[in-house]
Write a structure and sequence with these properties.
The structure holds 2 protein chains of 2 kinds.
Chain A (H helix, E strand, L loop, with lengths): L6 H17 L6 H6 L8 H9 L18 H14 L5 H13 L3 H13 L4 E4 L14 E5 L2 E12 L6 E7 L10 E7 L5 E7 L5 E13 L3 E2 L6 H34 L3 E2 L2 E2 L4 H29 L5 H27 L10 H13 L4 H11 L3
Parallel strand pairs in A: 1-4
Antiparallel strand pairs in A: 2-3, 3-7, 4-5, 5-8, 6-7, 9-10
Helix pairs in contact in A: 1-4, 4-7, 5-6, 5-7, 7-8, 7-9, 7-10, 8-9, 9-10, 9-11
Chain B lengths: L1 H17 L26 H13 L17 H14 L8 H13 L2 H12 L5 E4 L15 E4 L3 E12 L6 E7 L9 E7 L5 E6 L8 E12 L3 E2 L5 H18 L9 H4 L2 H6 L1 H29 L7 H24 L15 H9 L9 H12 L6
Parallel strand pairs in B: 1-4
Antiparallel strand pairs in B: 2-3, 3-7, 4-5, 5-8, 6-7
Helix pairs in contact in B: 1-3, 4-5, 4-6, 6-10, 9-10, 10-11, 10-12
The chains are: A alpha+beta, B alpha+beta.
The complex binds flavin-adenine dinucleotide.
């Protein structure tokens, strides 16, 4: 598989780019929902529009009514979301939860996929339990009870948890906290008794929940995949969410970079355009190079995932780390090269900085993933 | 698709029965590379066999047309060839400035006779080329070069001096930038080819900090160059020179880890990596960058083969690849500790770590410095003003 887009993918990219630039623009979405104090932090109308374009079902199989596409295509949409900082439940619903549902029973698919395809439902994934991403450790307990399970524990950093109709929850049905085995995934409706949320606004204006699960009673049919054997599906969900977040980071980096390069071509000081200063040119050129490399790494990871390659795990971590690194550099250089105006709320570059910070933490930062690269490489 | 599958099978079988086991070991250093040429001394029978077998099939230059000594492979086939070679660790059968630099320039600018003649010699490893660009006063500012070719009707008489001419003392021929019009800076340079054995050519090796002496000062004292040995038009050699530099930069970028899929952390001393958590972390962060760059190299090559991608992208690749390679060898030295300092001992393979480490410092100078690469990216890709 060559590492450039096929004709179909190019068309998809054109559609996504145009749509996000028009409908997902910062003024129309991010600022609007932020400044009106929206409790969801995103617009349901846009989510519906994404459904009309088929995007919400991009990773849902054709048999189940979706587009049956892969990580490369989902990544194309993610990059445009990143470029426009468009708040949307696409990553948690159409990528992460959809991956989990893809591995679920006919019954669960029938219950949840139609809502996703129509844009009526929003999903979230509840995996993290501490302030740093560490899915190797899962302490939330699910014990057999009645004709199903009872869940007790706490989850944190659950993006869109409060808006979600259903949450994919990773819980332990056997073993101790650090065991790889003994994990089970559950599809938990938001209004289930015993599930409480403390929704908080984050630095980037997205809304995340601290979730408490206190005696949450679920029927056995809420199980996604195998009881005790959920690690495999969980890894698939993690890979999907990580590579999706990496693609979003590439978009954030590219968006911040475009703004900055444009500014370098416009702003004058000392009687010159600031883009004529070699110190800024070199930093901009270095940044360009980092973003190109991050995009290539992300593309490669998407392809390996779509091809079911055993090297995908490694490359997903490379992509998440590299994209995070590049985006971090892009937003820092972006603010610096804008000077004072870069520090103002009115100007958009600071919004990129905020989004990058939240994305960096989501599904593991560059340190977590570099560590994972070392482990997967055997040192 | 199934054609490509068959092709892969074919290549795999051919490699299996034709690539000698010794040629599946990594190249130790520059001395261990098969450079070809009139006076080349093969390091082993295996090295000779491997080059000859590949040359006979056109595999030394797989994507050149058959008529010019290549195998006429498509982009997809050439990728398969590279992947299959990488799979068994097969060395390049032949490496040369002819393949990396002059060949692509001739394919674009050469006459049919020049292509048949010179490309065939390159593909078969018969003639080794060197590059006469830099002069004592003209490095980054190459276009200021002074070496002059005086028009004598059916030939030029060339006088002047080049410097940093890699392998000038081992090369058979030189591709050389020569001023043929003193009144016009950019459109006053011609791209000439001539035999290093021509009367009036002399070389003087320069010792590098690595202790090796792979490059020279090169002097031209009334050297006669027949008129048919020009590539492209008179006074338009700068176009050829720039095009060639794109390929040179592409090539140098891949020494920066482009073809190395293996992680550095797993290649260096495990003990060193595991005992010092800070070093281990540095290795891990390096591996993220290196593996990401490997994907970038693959993407870049894929795009080049089908004419996608920005034409100035090789400058970005060269910058990123060489800076990465310098970082790689810094970490190799750190992980190697005092053992990596040994300069001559047998245990250190003649100081190969230390010498390689020093050699990599040239990566971001040769073929255009990192600063110049960034200038080009800023101007040609980012369209920043001035520059
Ligand atoms: C190992 C090796 C092999 C080589 N092989 C060959 C060969 O085979 N053939 C050949 O012709 N040449 C060869 N070269 C020469 C090489 O191309 C030059 O060294 C290179 O182009 C830099 O020129 P210079 O050495 O004159 O440095 P200078 O141009 O003098 O540069 C000195 C410093 O100034 C910086 N600088 C210069 N201009 C600018 C600018 N506009 N903006 C910012 N910074 C700037 C440079 O980046 C560098 O850091 C080789 C060099 C090495 C090290």
């Amino acid at each position: 598989m060559p590492l450039y887009h096929t004709e179909d993918q190019t068309m998809l990219a054109d559609t996504a780019r145009q749509f996000m630039a028009d409908e997902g623009a910062i003024a129309k979405q991010l600022r609007h929902w932020r400044d009106t104090g929206c409790k969801d932090g995103f617009g349901h109308t846009l989510w519906k529009q994404l459904a009309e374009l088929g995007f919400t079902g991009i990773m849902v199989s054709e048999d189940d009514g979706g587009l049956g596409m892969g990580h490369v295509e989902a990544g194309i949409v993610m990059e445009e979301i990143g470029r426009n900082l468009t708040p949307s439940p696409f990553l948690t619903s159409a990528i992460a939860a959809a991956t989990a549902l893809g591995a679920s029973s006919h019954e669960l698919k029938g219950r949840y996929l139609p809502g996703l395809l129509s844009g009526d439902s929003v999903f979230a994934v509840a995996i993290d339990e501490g302030r740093k991403h560490r899915p190797e450790r899962i302490a939330t307990q699910a014990v057999r009870s009645g004709n199903g399970f009872r869940l007790d524990g706490a989850k944190t950093f659950v993006i869109h948890g409060a808006s979600a109709d259903m949450l994919v929850v990773a819980a332990r049905t056997a073993g101790s906290d650090d065991d790889a085995d003994g994990i089970t995934l559950f599809a938990v409706p938001r209004d289930t008794v015993g599930l409480s949320q403390d929704a908080v606004r984050l630095v980037d204006s997205s809304i995340a929940s601290h979730i408490k699960l206190e005696g949450v009673q679920l029927d056995a049919d809420a199980v996604i995949g195998e009881v005790d054997g959920g690690r495999e599906v969980l890894n698939r969900v993690l890979n999907a969410a990580r590579v999706g977040a990496a693609a979003e980071s590439v978009g954030v980096a590219a968006g911040a970079f475009d703004m900055t390069a444009t500014y370098l071509r416009q702003r004058k000081q000392f009687g010159k355009l600031i883009g004529e200063f070699q110190s800024l040119q070199h930093r901009a050129a270095h940044l360009y190079s980092e973003i190109e490399i991050a995009r290539a790494a992300t593309f490669k990871a998407q392809q390996l995932l779509d091809g079911g390659s055993e090297k995908a795990d490694l490359m997903v971590s490379v992509a998440k780390a590299k994209a995070g690194k590049a985006a971090g550099l892009a937003v820092r250089e972006g603010v610096q090269m804008h000077g004072g105006i870069g520090m103002t709320d009115e100007y958009d570059i600071g919004l990129y900085m905020k989004r990058d910070r939240a994305l960096a933490e989501f599904m593991g930062d560059q340190y977590y993933h570099a560590q994972r690269v070392a482990q997967l490489s055997g040192y | 698709m199934s054609d490509l599958k068959n092709f892969r099978e074919e290549i795999r079988d051919w490699l299996e029965s034709n690539c000698p086991p010794e040629m599946r070991q990594p190249v130790k250093d520059e001395d261990d590379v098969c450079w070809g040429g009139r006076n080349f001394q093969f390091k082993s029978e295996a090295q000779k066999t491997w080059m000859e077998r590949c040359a006979a099939k056109g595999y030394t230059v797989p994507d050149w047309p058959n008529a010019y000594g290549g195998a006429g492979m498509s982009a997809a086939e050439a990728k398969i060839w590279r992947e299959e070679c990488a799979r068994i660790g097969a060395r390049p059968p032949l490496s040369s400035f002819g393949i990396w630099m002059l060949g692509p320039a001739l394919l674009k600018f050469g006459t049919e006779e020049q292509k048949i003649h010179y490309l065939g010699q390159i593909a078969r490893g018969e003639i080794r080329w060197c590059q006469g660009y830099s002069e004592p006063g003209s490095g980054s500012d190459l276009v200021s070069l002074q070496t002059f070719g005086e028009d004598k009707g059916d030939h030029w008489v060339v006088n002047g001096q080049k410097i940093w001419t890699s392998y000038a003392d081992k090369a058979d021929w030189i591709f050389c930038l020569v001023r043929t019009d003193k009144t016009n800076k950019y459109q006053g340079i011609s791209f000439l080819l001539f035999d290093m054995a021509s009367p009036g050519v002399s070389t003087k090796p320069i010792l590098l900090i690595s202790g090796n002496s792979p490059f020279c000062e090169t002097f031209f004292d009334n050297v006669t160059v027949p008129k048919e040995q020009i590539v492209g038009e008179l006074n338009r050699g700068w176009d050829v020179a720039k095009y060639l530099l794109g390929h040179e930069r592409e090539m140098i970028s891949s020494t920066g880890g482009g073809d190395r899929a293996a992680s550095l952390g797993s290649a260096v001393s495990r003990a060193a990596a595991l005992e010092d958590p800070v070093l281990r972390a540095e290795l891990a962060l390096f591996d993220v960058d290196a593996l990401a760059f490997t994907a970038m190299s693959e993407k870049f090559m894929d795009e080049v083969k089908v004419g996608k991608g920005h034409p100035a992208q090789p400058n970005m690749m060269k910058y990123a690849g060489t800076e990465l390679n310098k970082r790689r060898l810094e970490l190799v030295m750190a992980a190697g500790g005092s053992a990596a300092l040994e300069w001559e001992s047998e245990a250190s393979n003649g100081g190969s770590s230390a010498r390689n480490w020093l050699r990599t410092k040239a990566n971001s100078i040769e073929g255009g410095t990192s600063e110049v690469m960034l200038n080009v990216v800023a101007k040609r890709i980012l369209d920043l003003p001035g520059a």
